[in-house]
């Protein structure tokens, strides 16, 4: 995985998917965001992310994933109140 294009594609997809996954597992979108940020921080510390463009892609994906997870949690809460 030394290709920059591969790293960029993964940076655009994986953080958002991880936020959604952790939100589904923990039932809380803030916890999902914190766990994903911790994983990204560990990868930066290990030296896998070393370009500012990858940081921007991670942040963009985190933002979109957090938006979707928040929307998902709010819909689930409304559905639970309605029944």
The total count of helices amounts to: 3
Distance between the termini: 48 Å
Oligomer: single chain
Structural class: mainly alpha
H/E element order: HHH
Short synopsis of the structure:
87% of the residues lie in helices and 0% in strands. It is mostly helical and 83 residues long.
What does this structure look like?
The protein is mostly helical. Helices cover 87% and strands 0% of the residues. It contains three helices and no strands. It has helices at residues 4-26, 29-46, 52-82. Helix 1 (4-26) runs antiparallel to helix 2 and helix 1 runs parallel beside helix 3. The longest helix is centred in the C-terminal third of the chain and has 31 residues, at 52-82. The chain is elongated. The mean pLDDT is 92.
List strands and helices in order, with pairings.
Blueprint: H1 4-26, H2 29-46, H3 52-82
Helix pairs in contact: 1-2, 1-3, 2-3
Descriptive labels:
83 residues, mainly alpha, 0% strand, elongated
């Amino acid at each position: 995985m030394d290709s920059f294009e591969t790293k960029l594609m993964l940076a655009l997809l994986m953080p958002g998917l991880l936020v959604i996954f952790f939100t589904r597992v923990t039932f809380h979108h803030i916890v999902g965001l914190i766990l994903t940020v911790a994983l990204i921080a560990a990868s930066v510390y290990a030296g896998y992310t070393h370009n500012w463009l990858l940081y921007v892609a991670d942040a963009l994906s985190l933002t979109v994933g957090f938006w979707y997870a928040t929307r998902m949690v709010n819909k689930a809460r409304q559905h639970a109140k309605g029944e």
